[in-house]
Design brief:
The chain has helices spanning 87-98, 126-134, 141-148, 206-216; strands at 3-9, 18-20, 22-24, 37-41, 58-63, 68-73, 76-82, 102-106, 123-125, 152-155, 172-176, 179-188, 232-238, 247-249, 254-255. The protein is 15% helix and 29% strand.
């Protein structure tokens, strides 16, 4: 039976992720602490990986129980801050790095998802990550996992199995552990996966290679109408307010119409 093998959350949007063994569902349908904070400029616009490749140089380590983040530039001269009591100091550190004034905004209901209409966790299979990594000789599986920044990873299924979690028109409901989830649509990828997650260096022809390979290996049973282009991978989801407070944990089984 398909099972949840990894959970990743990203407390500050676009910075490094944290691997956890369990997490709770927020009232807005996202995972606790995932994209809880976002960096914004003086006009309130997000400062993220889509906007600047420089952000890849920022290393962040999170101690969530203590509410502490340690920031550094490629591991040099790390400085620790309390996420709640030293937010202005974090903003000053980041402003110095970017060269323009920024601040942190917080949302503890939905976080700051890329798709506000589907703020649930993104999902992908381990086999899909492995398959996509095989398209790029110099990109390891772990590096591809870091580039894709997906929340939930499913094991014991074939590559692109997650394309079964949405349909041509309506969301598909499935059960992951104790949580009811709706699969909505295939996730449209941005510029971030084209870059090395640590250096920010761009992999030549990444999007073109990805698109050609994804189209060639697209499952015959998958809802092709949802693909206006093939630079899509993983599944965007929604979780109803009724599921708030419930937990997901590594090892949870997925029950769908395909596994019943």
């Amino acid at each position: 039976m398909p099972r949840l093998s990894h959970i990743f959350i990203y407390p500050i949007k676009s910075l490094d992720g944290v691997s956890v063994t369990q997490t709770k569902i927020l009232p807005g349908g996202s995972l606790a602490h995932d994209r809880e904070f976002v960096i914004v400029d003086q006009q309130g616009k997000w400062v993220n990986g889509k906007r600047t490749a420089a952000i890849h140089q920022v290393r962040s380590q999170f101690h969530l129980n203590a509410r502490v983040v340690t920031l550094s530039v490629q591991g040099k001269n790390p400085v620790s801050f309390h996420l709640d009591h030293a937010r202005s100091a974090i903003a000053a550190w980041l402003s110095d790095f970017f060269g323009f004034a920024v601040e942190l905004q917080q949302n503890t209901v939905t976080g700051f998802p890329d798709d506000p209409t589907s703020p649930g966790p993104t999902m992908i299979s381990t086999a899909s990550i492995e398959q996509v990594a095989s398209w790029f000789p110099n990109v390891s599986v772990e590096e591809m996992r870091t580039r894709l920044r997906t929340n939930l990873e499913i094991t014991d299924v074939p590559a692109f199995w997650e394309d079964s979690l949405y349909s041509d028109d309506l969301p598909i409901e499935f059960q992951l552990g104790e949580v009811q989830i709706q699969g909505v649509n295939p996730c449209q990828r941005c510029v971030v996966p084209t870059r090395d997650a640590i250096s920010g260096a761009t992999t030549a022809q990444f999007q073109k290679t990805f698109t050609v390979k994804r189209k060639a290996e697209f499952p015959t049973w998958a809802p092709a109408s949802r693909f206006n282009h093939f630079y899509r991978l993983a599944v965007n989801t929604r979780i109803a307010p009724s599921e708030a407070g419930k937990s997901l944990q590594v090892g949870d089984a997925i029950e769908t119409s395909l596994t019943d």
